[in-house]
Amino acid sequence: MYLQPAFAEDRLEVRHGLMRAFPLATLILADAGGVTADLIPFMLYADEGDSGLGVLRAHVARANPLWRKLETATSCLVVFQGPESYISPSWYETKRTTHKVVPTWNYAMVQARGSGRVVDDPFWLRRLLDRMTAFHESGMPQPWELDDAPIDFMAATMKAIVGIEIPIDSLVGKWKVSQNRGAADQRGVVAGLGDDPMAQLVAERLKPE
């Protein structure tokens, strides 16, 4: 990934925050058979792993050939995409002074790399599903739990999935959120974006007057 120093996000808690807020990530695998890219909801275990960067866990359908590819792939790339937005040059103060401006795109993303493994263990899977469900149901008026489903139905469902685990070896964050613009241009972007989530990311990095 091309990463200019101005756009690098080195704070681990910020990178982890994006991964939790946008858990549906793209898992990219490459082996002798080619390259695949699949959207998978991941669970971050921030306090685990030897690198200090955390461990990613997820599950896929047993019928999905992805998990067999994972067994032969030398490494995994998991891309977490956060807020993104088109940035109009008409929002820049510079447009009114020099007109030397062009459109661009702001975005925040995290790329995690590591060697993955397949986990075909019903107890491991149950713990993962319980944790993922509790996390995503926490804001619901009446949170759903796995035990709400019939036992035989859940038993069949568990047999139809396989777990995957990726200890993170490398974690790169890129926040391209107008840090390369002057303060007046940044304020114009914030105003132009309005209620878009990107406005907050730009506002957090405003240069002093």
UniProtKB/TrEMBL annotation:
Q: Name one Pfam family in it.
A: FMN_bind_2
Q: Which InterPro entries match?
A: Split_barrel_FMN-bd (IPR012349), TR_PAI2-type (IPR007396)
Domain of life here? Bacteria
Q: What name does UniProt use for this protein?
A: FMN-binding negative transcriptional regulator
Which organism was this protein described from? Answer: Duganella vulcania
